[in-house]
Structures are given as C-alpha cells and as structure tokens.
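7-carboxy-7-deazaguanine synthase, pasting as requested.
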Amino acid sequence: MLEKEVQIAVEKGEMLPLMEEFYTIQGEGYHTGTPAYFIRVGGCDVGCHWCDVKESWNAELHPPTVTDTIVENAAKHAKTIVITGGEPLTWDMNPITTKLKARGMSVHIETSGAYPVTGTWDWFCLSPKKNKLPVDDAYAITNELKVIIHNKHDFLFAEEQAAKTNDNAILFLQPEWSKKEQMTPLIVDYVMNNPKWRISLQTHKYLNIP
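Structure tokens follow.
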C-alpha cells in the first residue's frame, strides 16, 4: 500500500500500529489467572512517568497492521481478547472489535479512557491517569476501575475516580511495580478499612510471564 493509503487506513481503524500480540495469563484485575490473547497497540501521549511499556508510546515505531490479520492471529489462540497499549482509544476501535465479536470472541480493553470511546466491549477496564483524565463516557461504561498507587496521594485520586464511575464498577487498587514494597502494605490497610476496594497485583511479573 502507498504511504497515504496506509495513513487513511490507520485513521479509519482498518489498520493499527501493532506493537506485539501474545497468548498468556491475565495478570491483573478482575480476570487475574485466566488465559487471554493480548493485542498491544502502539501510540500514547498520556505520559505516565512510571509506565513499564514506554516503548509503546511512539506509534511510528510499530508497523501498521491490517485488522483482519490481527483478528486471524487472535482466533488461533483464545476466546478472550484483551486490547491494550499504549492507549488503544487513540485509534478507532470499531473495526477490530466488530470483527473479533463476529468470530464469537469476548473483547476486553485496558485503557486510561483519555479519548472518546470507540468499539464494542464485553469488559471495560478503566485505569485513569492524573495527566489526562477519562472522558465521561468511559466512566459510564466501566466494568472495572483499576487505580495505580504510586504514592499516598493516589488514594485520594482513587476515591475521586470511584465517585465518577458507575455504581456497578468493581474497584481495584494496584501498587506501581517499582513501589510495591512500600505501597502494598498501605493498600492492604486501606482495603481493610474501605472494603469496597479490592487489591490487584501484577501477578504475571511474579510468574515471569508476558
């Protein structure tokens, strides 16, 4: 395809800057311990300083890939698909989610919610960031709110975000990996005193899997 044609296809969501795709065990949040096929899309300008996949930020580093190809690869491995990033809502998610659901797959997203919501989702995991807050539509459809705890002030941020989220959302606090030794005991105490919250850990890192 010509460069201009590729650009148009990416803008339409018919191609996506694919960083990586892999079959593994979900390590975080509500579906921890269950198998899923992850599609990591490049491109993010939210800019969390503790992000553990900063190589995903620059979409130009990741080849535009036809969504049909991504869907075919996913269909070989799993019924549960997790689209993550980067920030997947940077792009139009309607084409890929439509195709995945047409194949009978359960389609999940992990997102900061910083951009307008596109796509059709069976599970919407919202992980809001202070740098760029979620759009209202993201709060309204959240199934799982996952707030990363990097310092003590993040507990207040978590409560502010929970207050904006719909009443059915399941609430998680997750220690930022580099601060897990300091923050995990604080999270344990917080959840025991505020039982509407649950603890999420990055169990895939303990298991040494992707």
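Note for the archive: The radius of gyration is 17 Å.
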